[in-house]
Amino acid sequence: MSVPTSDHSPSAATVAGAQRPRVLISILNWNGLQKTLTCLESLKDQRASTPADVTTLVIDNGSRNDEAAALSAALASTDVVLKCLPNNLGFTGGHNVAIKMAIEEGYDFIWLLNNDAKVTPGTLRELVAEIQQHPRCGVVSPILRDIDDGTVARCVNTHEWDKRCSRRILDIEEARRFQEEHPLETWVDGTAVLFRVSALKEVGLLDDRLFAYYDDNEIGVRLAARGWSSRCVFTATVLHENRKKLEEFPSYLSYLLQRNELLFYYANTPPKYRSLLWLRLMDKAWFDASRFHQYGLEGHSKAAMLGIYDFMKGNFGPPAHDRPVPASMYALRAAAGLFYNIKNTPMRLKKRLAAR
């Protein structure tokens, strides 16, 4: 696999002439020892190639005792700082521990990095150079490429509020144009994001209600509201695992995605797009839950229904997908399924007639 790297980019000279910033790298581990060690191995060149004072922090997010002990032993002879938490605080809670540390100890930037990511040479240097060149930039991300085939998996994103969804711009030239023309409408994925600590100090920590997923959407909106832009750095690359099929996703993911999608759009949709917002959000949510059921993915359907239920009840935080679904939710799913069957009947007939 051939993936572009950034070993010889001229932008590094800009950083070299500036005062050395302090950078904290935060990596979460939750029963993922080998992935974490592989991620750390890919970081070995970053300190030498980046004109910055870099500290690497690994936060064990409530792993099993044997996992935490093995991680501690593996890092004992390194300069990586290890902090072990008694419970899994999720992406938001775990990284918030690091963000608080960065604020309290006077770091300039904090790099939140997934432990299943592999960093290509020169990436941190490019991220620091880019964010220093744009004083009102609050967060930057490298291009995220599929770890298997190197294709662009994530680049620049924007919210399409009228459709209550995100548009992912994967064409690099289009992405360049969009973020230059719409700096406050751009947001970047949370897989490998470098934040300006002063921006986080102004807008606040990651939203702990989310636990994981939609946290990058949410912090991007909060930054933009205060005039901080988000940027993709096209000279930097991080490789990342990407699940290809829904069957590969754990059911707790469907719970978190459903609950957090509802929370994000209900809390952040601009006033001009809020007409009938509750009904529109529920329409999409019940369509998804019904579709999972129709396709035989009952575990995902139940998790989605619980996500809907907890959003309506205002229950947030860690996933609570492994419990009985209230009977009323099954009744609503049945009604929703009947509604969508009736709604889609004309389209099915049209397709059958066209096929004759």
UniProtKB/TrEMBL annotation:
Keyword Transferase (UniProt): yes
Ranges where the Glycosyltransferase 2-like domain occurs: 30-203
Origin superkingdom: Bacteria
GO molecular function: glycosyltransferase activity
Pfam families given in the database record: Glycos_transf_2
InterPro entries, per database record: Glyco_trans_2-like (IPR001173), Nucleotide-diphossugar_trans (IPR029044)
SUPFAM superfamilies reported in the protein's UniProt record: Nucleotide-diphospho-sugar transferases
Keyword list, A-Z: Glycosyltransferase, Transferase
Transmembrane segments annotated in the record for this chain: none
Family recorded in the similarity comment: Belongs to the glycosyltransferase 2 family.
Protein name as it appears in the record: Glycosyltransferase family 2 protein
Gene source species: Massilia forsythiae
